[in-house]
Design a protein that fits this description.
There is one protein chain. The protein has 157 residues and is mostly helical. 54% of the residues lie in helices and 0% in strands. It has six helices and no strands. It has helices spanning 7-21, 31-36, 38-53, 59-67, 71-84, 88-112. It starts with 6 loop residues before the first helix and ends in a 45-residue tail after the last helix.
């Protein structure tokens, strides 16, 4: 009988719960997010295991097959957890842990999207502060002048 759940067994549980709470985020849980959020994923899996599956005949094998990607078993686990998600007490137990995992996902998503600065060339792009985008060639005769008149062409009266 399984007492402590492994990260591999906890991951499908986390994916199902995240999909339900955060509209499809769980299906985007890749290897990097699983590594970065290993502790909360395992914690969530353990809470769900202890409450829903522990001590029930065949559930360790069911979860093992689901973790290996077996579609019928994964669907069984999903159906069971979605039914549990109708219980406000269960949602109150899992939501704070799911939020931890979601925050890791959001932070990693931010790093791979908007906050990337490339230093490979002489160009500079500033997205986060909405500043001007300057691209040029080293030792170029082009000079940049910025006009900070954000109120239009009319001078202030």
């Amino acid at each position: 009988m399984l007492e402590t759940i492994t990260l591999a067994l906890a991951t499908p549980i986390a994916k199902i719960i995240l999909d339900k709470l955060y509209e499809g985020v769980g299906s985007k849980l890749g290897e990097k997010v699983v590594e970065a959020a290993a502790a909360p994923i395992q914690k969530l899996g353990q809470v769900v295991w202890d409450r829903c599956f522990k001590g029930k005949p065949g559930t360790d094998k069911l979860l093992d097959q689901a973790a290996k990607g077996s579609e019928p078993e994964l669907k069984q686990v999903q159906n069971y957890l979605l039914k549990e998600m109708e219980n406000p007490e269960f949602v109150a137990m899992v939501k704070p842990i799911a939020e931890e995992i979601h925050q890791v996902f959001v932070r990693m998503d931010d790093v791979t999207a908007e906050n990337v600065q490339q230093n490979a060339g002489d160009g500079f792009q500033n997205i986060g502060t909405q500043g001007p985008i300057l691209q040029g060639i080293k030792d170029s005769p082009i000079t940049f002048t910025t006009n900070n008149n954000y109120y239009g062409d009319k001078p202030n009266d």
